[in-house]
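Final report, section 2: Outcomes. Of the targets proposed, Nitrogen-fixing NifU domain protein is the one most frequently requested by collaborating groups, and we therefore present its record in full.
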Amino acid sequence: MEEQIKKLIEEEIRPALQSHGGDIDFKGFDQASGVVTVALTGACGTCPFAQETLRVQVEQVIRRSFPSVTAVKREG
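The predicted structure is given below as tokens.
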């Protein structure tokens, strides 16, 4: 499942964030807890709306495709 999550990030989430000067790096997936960990970089790393971006543009997309994912957390 980790590879599928990475593919979704690469194909759907990363292009959207890059179009706004940001980026995302997959850091890990804890299968036991269902938590995906990512790092927001570029403009997203310092944006005051980064938490909202994480919730709306990252977590919702991942959870829609992978219902077993319980949360997406930001590294750091």
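The chain has a mean pLDDT of 94.
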